[in-house]
Amino acid sequence: LMTDIEGSTETAANLGDARWKNIIDAHELSASRAVARFGGTLVKTMGDGILATFSGPSRAVACAKNLQSEAAAAGLSVRAGVHTGECERRGQDISGIAVNVTARILDCTPGGTCHVSSTVRDLTAGSGLEFVAAGSHRFKGVPGDWELHAVC
What we know:
The chain is α+β, with helices and mostly antiparallel strands. About 40% of the residues lie in helices and about 30% in strands. The strands form 3 sheets. Strands 1-4-7-9-8 form a 5-stranded mixed sheet, with helices on both faces. It is globular, with a radius of gyration of 15 Å.
């Protein structure tokens, strides 16, 4: 799971560093709690977003939806991208094509929504999650076309 606060640079510029720091601190605390609640591991925070891993993709999607709801209550719009695949541990960080694909999914996800790969959609069959097609995409540096799906 990778998230990003929409319009964070503009918001930070409008609010000033001190007020923005308080908002980011509160968001990161909320995100850390949500990741733990859904059985995940917070890999890192990235200034205005997070990278987290989960034991299964439905947990990642549920966490994303929860984060978006909590952020909306605080006046923030969070977009989220979810993909699943093999990752390489690098100390406390992770890397690999699955991480790169997740970042590319996030790049084309509108604010306030969560997009997932077809892999995630297929693996969550029977979970009760619902999706709508969000188009086919080509990602820089990643071969093939990627079908994305928006979480309902």
